[in-house]
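Consider this pair:
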Amino acid sequence: MKVGRRKFLRSGSAALVGLSLKSDRPIAGSFVNDSFQMGHLLRDRVSFPPPKRTEKFPVVIVGGGIAGLSAAWRLQKRGFTDFVLLEMNPQAGGNARWGENEITAYPWAAHYVPVPGPKAEYVRELFEDLGVLKDGQWEERDLCFAPQERLFLYGRWQDGIEPAVGLTKKDRDQFQHLEDLFAKFRASGEFTIPLELGRSAKFQDLDRLSFSDWLQQQGGDSRLVNWYMNYACRDDYGALAKDTSAWAGVHYFSSREAEEKGPLTWPEGNGWITRRLLERVGGNVRTNQMVYRVAQTKRGVSIFSGEIEFQSDFVIFAAPTFLGPYLIEGFPHLNDFVYSPWLTANLTLERLPDSRGAEPAWDTVFFDSPTLGYVDAMHQSLRTHIDRTVWTFYWALADGAPEQNRRLLLEKDWSYWKEAILHDLERVHSDIRQCVSRIDVMRMGHAMIRPAIGSVFSEERRRLTRREPRTGSRLLFANSDLSSISIFEEAQYHGVLAAQIALERLGGHR
């Protein structure tokens, strides 16, 4: 079924699309980092030619996102270097890839890491290795500069993204009531990062209803409250509150300290972390290496990629889990793994647009926009004067079915998305068209796992996280998908844990 323009324009996700095709200056750009063509070869079960040669490694890592790179980092740190990491794309990093032009480096997706709490031991260890955490103190250069966030609400700017302008007593009371509830959940110790260190059945019932239904049960009918809760779900999960597990919605607000320092960020976002990891393990990484088959044998596992059959003792499967049924022989169909489609764009600005007198911030959000706003790559710059910059624009296509929005991403051309982005921005920045010289767009049909209702505690997910030696499996899954939440700390945790288990089973490397 094709998605008609008229139907799309009626949806919440497209209310901003004017498609006026007017422009005061020529704007260059294109789609970048497209990899869906290769993915569709797997989806369509295309036959591949037999391999021409064999290579042997005790450990093969499939997938070069943060989970795969973290597994490689742990292996190498433990003195184990006889492994290879296979990445389908020309650039490793997954959702932590980056770009660069003559102005600055910039992110293509993930752009920050909240300052990790004490339970996120692996993340803190990594940041110690990278010089971000020194003697228990966070490097000031790596903490987000002020002003950090701003929201355009009721025709004016406010600091922070939680609405604070024009609130009625009812709005304030409902925000306070939810804050008190989240504080109690936080104190329970059940909502942790990484999830596995706290998640138990105590609040499992929350997973059986939507976050929006839970909010209604708490009397949350304020328009501002519901906008903010929906924004949070779109931002971290790519889903609306009505499509998000209430457990995951509570986790968003209850898993971190209410007043935390940070976040940690860089001009290229989490691409900075990817670059540092590649400096350490890049010699073991092979890009443009699409895996098309994984088969367990009597002696180990065979991984087929291009003209090579890699033979290994263990495979760390750090690719998105939805690829399992297409790659792994005998792997069952997945029902509880739902993925959100996203669009991101990097806009090159020759000068800063009018911001109605407000000082530029790192993260900018517009109230009632179906998009998630933009971050400024030059915000972390130490320059005293900034004219040219790059904005990274985020749009989770949360309204409607993910399958329908994936088709929309592919059907609409670059000009369509360029106009949609500019139309959203010019509601606040009236002269944006005179400022932008280039817009590059990245489409991600399966950008991140969605904690759908009932999925956080599903038996299907639990099976994939069982890593006991008695299972006999030589496949170790390592992706943030296993947590049902696509954040840096979860990806890193599963990657490191899979690497440690592989070392233990190989016999003594630690």
Q: What stands out?
A: Residues 1-11, 13-23 have pLDDT under 50 and may be disordered. The longest strand covers residues 436-450. The two ends are 53 Å apart (CA to CA). The chain has 15 helices and 20 strands.
